[in-house]
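Proteins fold reproducibly. Look at a sample protein:
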Amino acid sequence: MRLRVQLVHWSRRAVVLTDTPDPKCPLCDGDGGISRDYGDPETGEYAGTDWEPCTCWDGTRRWVLLPVPRWFRRTSTHYSDEPPF
């Protein structure tokens, strides 16, 4: 299991700990899944891509570490070029 910290925007913002794909996985090469292109059976033209998750990663495995309060938002988009000291 390879963990990382991530900020998510579900119904409420939170800091979560998530699983990541194995970078040395021989099946998916660290992408977390395998994409397969498919075509239309009548014309043989490209019709889309299916994505199948790899066994080295579980994208639903997440643990909430810290819910971010609603009042803790950036309200101003003005950035100062003054030094902080």
Summary: The longest strand covers residues 2-9. The chain has one domain: 2-67.
